[in-house]
Amino acid sequence: MRRPGGDRGQVSIEFLGMTPLIILTLVLVWQAVLVGYTFTLAGNAADEAVRAGTAAPRGDARQAACSAAGLKHLSTAWKGDAMVRCSGSGYVTADVYLKVPVLFPGVISFPATVTGHAGAVEEVKH
Fold it and tell me: What is the value of pTM for the model shown?
């Protein structure tokens, strides 16, 4: 003999109870993806910046070429707070500083900064 009502609807109730946990997990995974992507962007931008910096003449021209190359491939969501610094003579280094967006790139960023660093030997022109 069956009880009236029984276990009907139990799965729906359990799913409703788990929904906030599922959503929180998805949000945390997405944020981890954004952090990883920001590290990738910072490293690539530093590589591009140092490549341009080694080919440019020393001084302000080097910093301008380095900065332009470092920002060239960044989307507007990361470009807004980005900073590129080049230094050195003989061995040129580039540092790129990017902010990690919170959930939606271009809206709000964490106060923490991700750094990309690269270095290369300066090209000698004959």
Answer: 0.79
